[in-house]
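[recover] target loaded
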């Protein structure tokens, strides 16, 4: 993808969108149909995504944050309820918990090499006010969901899976997103499956699905598409809902992307392996998730820099070589807003250590081997200087 308006020309960008003529034609077909909002194409996407995961219900929404917010509302989060969630993730989950009236209770990760929440880290954070858990499959690597679900059921806690990084990933034969009470996906521009902005909520519960569908569209008992088809002439409002619908143009793009997801993920897996081979002898950084159990979607390729390395200097040196890097993620509890709510605590020591050392390298399906080598060699040179 060419970003002609970018002020900086990356030789290797952090991510890249792979659109073919099929996506263009699918979007054009919707435009020619004259129906652009949630309608028949969105419903086909929902059915196909549910079938892909082997789950009963999939509800397409406007973005991943909307998916998280709706899930919390549907599960009945109340004012002052705590939700256990990692600090080492994007801020969307914490924001959604606050907007739903709850309190994000930040949980440490199990280790620096595998920065995922575990039963052990969750158990240290549970209080009498804890209502549920929102786990996150960091980088597309699945949490140990069988253990987490058993832990949650024993304590009468519900579980939301933030599977924004993990479409196509699985843990012990069950897809990520299908383990918890509700699973949430993001289709943002840098995701494995993308339409620019979009999301999906999935659940095996028909009761939760009914609530989610109503909340997605102002709490209305029927949608505009239903009335266009003549199925309804009016509607009731049964809940205080929101406008979190997706549109058929984006749904059309996603339907095409979904057919290629397995091949996209396989290409990411191959490039991740190239990195591991090229960086195998580099002692000043460690590749994360080496030998991790489960099937990953390989959304991110991240390394831990040596404690002595100046990460800012490394990133600047990589930029000079035309290589874009990033940090996934600055811990949420250290942001100025959230530090007032949850000051830095000793039980987030591993998260804080990862936050100081983590570096994300470029990874996308059409990266060439030469580009992966350029990044790997550039990282060595940057570490020499830093």
């Amino acid at each position: 993808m060419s970003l002609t308006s970018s002020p900086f020309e990356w030789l290797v960008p952090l991510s890249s969108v792979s659109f073919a003529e099929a996506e263009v034609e699918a979007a054009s077909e919707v435009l020619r149909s004259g129906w652009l909002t949630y309608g028949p194409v969105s419903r086909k996407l929902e059915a196909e995504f549910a079938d892909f995961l082997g789950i009963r219900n999939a509800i397409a929404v406007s973005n991943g944050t909307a998916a998280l917010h709706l899930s919390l509302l549907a599960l009945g989060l109340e004012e002052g309820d705590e939700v256990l969630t990692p600090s080492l993730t994007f801020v969307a989950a914490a924001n959604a918990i606050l907007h739903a009236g709850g309190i994000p209770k930040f949980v440490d990760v199990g280790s620096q090499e595998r920065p995922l929440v575990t039963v052990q880290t969750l158990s240290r954070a549970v209080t009498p006010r804890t209502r549920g858990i929102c786990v996150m499959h960091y980088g597309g690597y699945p949490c140990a969901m069988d253990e987490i679900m058993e832990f949650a059921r024993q304590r009468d806690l519900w579980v939301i899976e933030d599977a924004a990084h993990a479409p196509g990933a699985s843990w012990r034969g069950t897809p990520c997103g299908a383990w918890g009470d509700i699973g949430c996906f993001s289709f943002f521009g840098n995701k494995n499956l993308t339409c620019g902005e979009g999301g999906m909520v999935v659940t095996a519960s028909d009761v939760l699905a009914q609530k989610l569908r109503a909340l997605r569209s102002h709490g209305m008992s029927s949608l505009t598409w239903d009335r266009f088809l003549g199925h309804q002439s009016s509607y009731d409002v049964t809940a205080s809902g929101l406008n979190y619908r997706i549109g058929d143009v984006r749904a059309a793009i996603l339907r095409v992307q979904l057919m290629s997801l397995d091949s996209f993920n396989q290409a990411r897996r191959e490039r991740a392996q190239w990195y591991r081979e090229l960086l195998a002898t580099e002692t000043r950084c460690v590749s994360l998730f080496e030998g991790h159990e489960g099937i990953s979607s390989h959304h991110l390729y991240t390394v831990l820099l040596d404690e002595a390395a100046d990460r800012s200097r490394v990133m600047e040196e990589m930029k000079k070589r035309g290589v874009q890097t990033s940090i996934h993620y600055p811990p949420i509890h250290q942001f100025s807003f959230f530090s007032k709510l949850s000051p830095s605590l000793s039980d987030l020591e591993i998260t804080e250590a990862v936050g100081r050392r983590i570096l994300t390298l470029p990874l996308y399906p059409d990266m060439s081997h030469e580009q992966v080598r350029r990044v790997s060699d550039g990282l060595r040179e940057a570490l020499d200087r830093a």
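[recover] notes: The longest strand covers residues 130-136.
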